[in-house]
Each structure stands twice: as C-alpha cells, then as structure tokens.
Amino acid sequence: MAKQPMLKFVTVPRDMPEKRDANVRKQDFSEIYAEYAAAKAEEQSARCSQCGVPYCQSHCPLHNNIPDWLRLTATHRLEEAYAVSQSTNTFPEICGRICPQDRLCEGNCVIEQSGHGTVTIGAVEKYITDTAWEKGWVKPITPHAERDQSVGIIGAGPGGLAAADMLRRAGVQVTVYDRYDRAGGLMTYGIPGFKLEKDVVMRRIEQLEQSGVEFVLNCTVGEDISFDAIRGKHDAVLIATGVYKSRDLSGPGAESQGIVRAIDYLTASNRASNFGDIVEEFESGELNADGKKVVVIGGGDTAMDCVRTAIRQGAESVKLLYRRDRMNMPGSQREVANAEEEGVEFVWLSAPVGFASNPRSAEPSDASPQSFVHGVTVQRMRLGAPDASGRQAPEVIEGSDYLEDADLVIKALGFEPEDLPKLWNTDGLEVTRWGTVRAEFGSGRTSLDGVFAVGDIVRGASLVVWAIRDGRDSAQAILEYLDTEASAIAAE
Q1: Which CATH class is domain 150-243+418-491?
Q2: CA–CA gap between residue 142 and residue 13 (Å, rounded)
Q3: Distance CA 195, CA 246 (A)
Q4: Coil, strand or helix at 470
Q5: What pLDDT shows up at residue 390?
Q6: What crossing angle do the helices spanning 262-269 and 301-312 adopt, rounded to 10°?
Q7: Where is the FAD/NAD(P)-binding domain (predicted)?
Q8: What is the pLDDT of residue 3?
Q9: Cα(271)–Cα(13) distance, rounded to whole angstroms?
Q10: What radius of gyration do the chain's Cα atoms show?
Q11: Pick from 18, 23, 138, 135: nearest CA to 90
C-alpha cells in the first residue's frame, strides 16, 4: 500500500523559512525571510489536511487551488504545482511575499483552528514560483492567435498588470499608461524592498514587455495625453490608477516642515535604496530618517512599512502612534512583531492633536523663515462602545495630553481617490460619494461605454491580491465586450 503523502500536521510541526536576525536585517533592505529548501517545502506542504471544504481557498480573494498545489509540491511535482498556482494568480511570487496570509488563507486553515499551527501557505507559494523562474518554466506569453483589437490600461499597478497579462493571453493588443518612470505602481515604489525585492517586480514587467505589452511611462493622463485621446485610440479602456491622495492631518502646526506624506517618504526610499536613483529630497534629509526622532501616525500596513524603513535608514528612535489598541489595528500582526523585533516602539491608544514647531533662520533665497516640527502633541485614548463597523470606538481621556519629541513626522493615515472626472475633464464618468469610480461588481463596467475600472480606484485602498482579482475578472468582461463589438461590426 502506498504511503500517505499528506496529513502530516500531527507529526510535523509548522516551520517557517528562517528569518534573519533583527540586528542584521535592519541594516539593509533585503527580504527578511530565507527561501525554503526543496525538502523543507515538501515537508511543510505535506502538513495540509486536504480538506473536503478548503477554507484557505474560499478565503483567498483569488480562490487559489491551494490544497492542489500543496499536494503537488509534497509529491515532487513542482512544475505542475507552478502551473496550478499560475492558473488562478497572475503574480503568485508577489502574493506569497506580501499578502497578509494571517488574515486570509493561513488564518482560516483548518489545522490552525484545531491547534496544530497553520500550513505555511505563503512561504510555499513563494518557493514554487521562485523555483519556476530559476528553472525557466516562466515564459513570455504567446497567444494562439493575435487580435486586431486594442485595450488601453491606465495604471501599471497590480490590477492593470493582471488585466494586461490576461488580455495578452487572448491575443489583444495592450498599451499600459502610467505616471511613473517604472511600472509596478505601489509594488515598485510603495512597498519596501525588505518585503518585496524590486527585481521580483521588474522581472514580471520584463515578461509582459517580452509578451508584447507596450508601456507608456512618465505619462500623466489629463496632462501628457487626454482621456478622450486614449478612448479614441483603443477599442476599450481600463482604469486602474489606484488611490494616491493621502488623508491629511489637522491641528495646530500641521503645516510645519518635517511633516510628510507616507507615499512621498516610501517612494523616495525605494528610489534611493532599491534602485540607486538620486533623489533630491532624500539627499537633503527632507525624506530621510537618518539620525532623527521619527513618529509615524497610523495603524495600517503602510504605517508598518514606514516605521521599518525608518529603522533601516538609521533613525535615532521610531515610534508609531495609533488611536486603538494592538488587537484592533488593521495592519498585519506579523508585521507588528517584525517591527518590534527591529526596535520600533508602538504607542497604543494615542492620537495627535497638534504639532510643536520652531522657526529656523531663512536661507538667503527664502522670503521668510519656516517652522520645523520638533514634537507631536499626543492625546491619550480609551476604547468605548463599538462604532458602526462593530469595532470599539476610541474616546479621548481628558487632560492626558503630552508632547512626544519628533524631528520627522510621517502621515500614514490611508489614501483617498483623486477626482478623476475633474482631472481628466471627462463628463459622464460616474463616481460614488466616496469619490471612487462607480463600476459594476465582477466586470468593472463603468457608466461610459467601453470603459472599465478595477482595484483601489473602485474599492478604495485595499490589498494587492484584490486588485489582481479585479484585473483578471475585468479582463474577461473586456474580452466579452470586444467580442460583442466585433460581432456587431460583422453584422453591419
């Protein structure tokens, strides 16, 4: 009788890839987890219980066939495991690195619920596709037949790139427009290298270029090219711009120098530390934490990226202020633990109410001196009754204010959509009361004929994996639209 290759969770403990020592890893921007060896990946995959109803799969936004590729990995069929993984996920090696598995697949693993420790799904997913790249199994896309129809995609983030991949597989001609000088969106300039090394993103961009996707970079729609011109050039258009407008802070001193946006700070760091670009604001110290007392305000994954980046830049101290407690913060608990290991101090149940600043002498070219932040006025909070979302609402503790020293304050309060109809001078593009593009669920169809929208510009700030899901779904809807249009023309 053949030996059972799976269900080894009772005898084999959970074992993550080795994590580099905090004192070592905080000196650079390399990823903190090592790669599995083949034997270890097979061993950990064999812990899967092969559930009849796999909750890991149902809680994955892409509904990845996780039990299938775990079994294939455990039984030495790695190339097949890659094929199964790639069939539902355009960028499995990226999701394996940055998805919050503790809130999605791994957090809903049946053996985790029974106390045996979840299968290390994310680490195995990363291993499968990294090996596929190493072995040459990842090839440029070669459609069975080319189509003469074209689609313009505005935004080179995960949603736009996932759609580009799917459309090229169907033979559609694809052009991607993006405001930045490199494609990838937040995967390139928003997420630090210690979570996602940039060569991982760049090789996917190169694969798409080799597959025939055209990238038009340094191109701001509404300035360098009009939205109407893009519509006129293509048979369909996909809006995948993401959300880049930062939520702001109010209160006395909120306009002081030294209070910066998270997106600006992370972009400067990624350019300088991961690509070797010369960034004036980084070189001047404006967007560089070296030697400074840093305070980050926020509780999401972007805030985690900021505090861990500041540590690597050589900050004197790094503190994060969050108005709720540890259990009620939206950021990944795994990221919190990593940050604490690296020396970040979390100040729970606290919120800024103002900023202390000092004027500095004006430069000869300046008309007047500017005020530079030197502290944050912090108000202590407590958790009260649940709000509309069911989470306990923070309440102010009167008379609890104190001053937290700070030379650099980073605002990581989340992102909001830009006013696209105004920026693009486009009548008829409907938006919601939150400013997101109004689009049909599942397809991404907007109020404009032949125009679709996906990702954060529809959902609001969300996860990379959801943008990939939206891009793939909308690509299918676009293909159906193109087929309908082609049939209508043929019938005339």
Answers
A1: alpha beta
A2: 42
A3: 22
A4: helix
A5: 82
A6: 50
A7: 151-471
A8: 67
A9: 40
A10: 24
A11: 138
Q: Domain 248-415 falls in which CATH fold?
A: FAD/NAD(P)-binding domain (3.50.50)
Strand partners, 404: 376
Residues 6+ apart with CB under 8 A from 92: 64, 85, 86, 125, 126, 128, 129
Placement of tokens 């892409």 in the chain: 62
Report the alpha-carbon distance of residue 59 to residue 280 in Å, rounded.
43
Give me the amino acid identity at 369.
P
Q: At 441, phi and psi to the nearest 5?
A: -65, 135
Residues across the chain: 492
Rounded to whole angstroms, the Cα distance separating 172 from 176 reads: 13
pLDDT of residue 332: 84
Low-confidence ranges of the chain (pLDDT < 50): 1-2, 362, 367-368
Strand, coil or helix: 340: helix
Q: What is the DSSP letter of 35?
A: P
| Strand locations in 204-347 (E) | 214-216, 236-239, 245-246, 259-261, 293-297, 317-321, 345-347
Please tell me whether the overall predicted TM-score, pTM, comes out greater than 0.85 for this model: yes
Distance between CA atoms of 200 and 96, rounded to whole angstroms? 12
Local structure of 221: helix, strand or coil? strand
What is the distance between the alpha carbons of residues 182 and 368, in angstroms, rounded to a whole number? 37
Amino acid at the residue 21: D
CATH of domain 8-135: 1.10.1060.10
